[in-house]
Write a structure and sequence with these properties.
Elements (H helix, E strand, L loop, with lengths): L7 E4 L5 H12 L3 E5 L5 H8 L5 E4 L6 H15 L4 E4 L14 H29 L2 E6 L12 H20 L5 E8 L5 H14 L3 H10 L10 H12 L10 E4 L7
Parallel strand pairs: 1-2, 1-4, 2-3, 4-5, 5-6, 6-7
Helix pairs in contact: 1-8, 3-4, 4-5, 6-7
Length: about 260
Amino acid sequence: MSKLKGKTALVTGSTSGIGLGMALALARQGANIMVNGFGETEGVLSEIRSIGVEVDYHPADMSKPVEIEDLIRCTENRFGSLDILVNNAGIQYVANIEDFPVDRWDSIIAINLSSAFHTIRCAMPGMKSRNWGRIINIASVHGLVASTQKAAYVAAKHGIIGLTKVVALETARTGITCNAICPGWVLTPLVQKQVDARAERDHVSNEQAKLALVSEKQPSGEFVSPEQLAALAVFLCGNDASEVRGVAWNMDGGWVAQ
């Protein structure tokens, strides 16, 4: 538990799913954690606190730049620094492009893409002053390939990968790295709802519905777990990854290999 001792990590969208997995894994390496997101928080804070690190919560709405600025400022004031930034917050909406509501497009671009720009621009001065930082943007295989009915999500995730590369180049001669992780299907609560709906629709078991859903895209037939993604994030935060810069690292059961 000493790999990241003395460091502070902010994980956006960390009250459940991938973000919570990231927060827990970084805490187990000794990092103090700033939690952000909606929904139940007391259980999350207690779980992280039980690991033996400092933890706090900020309710910033990641679609609002002013609240994002306050999130970064509060993190630095509370812990003394912001060393690891994991941009994980995201939302989804599915529709054909001619039917895609304009407000849904704007919200997805704001939360899935623009929020990362705002967190990075606000965190960068502190990271540069210490000449150390790790920025990890949670993209998606949809940052590398497209699927129908996901215009805003695919556009935002492609944008995240472009942003990652620019930040990596701008910090290439520093101790700051910026990389993207591109998950395939992950069995989050949101995806579980799709599994449940499919099982009911097709009159099959939950396990059969899971296999049918994931196999449409991932040759492995297996979901990626939040714990696997978090282990990759921990690696990217370590010294062994100091020359991993600007990559879009997919963990997707073979999706993009097809």
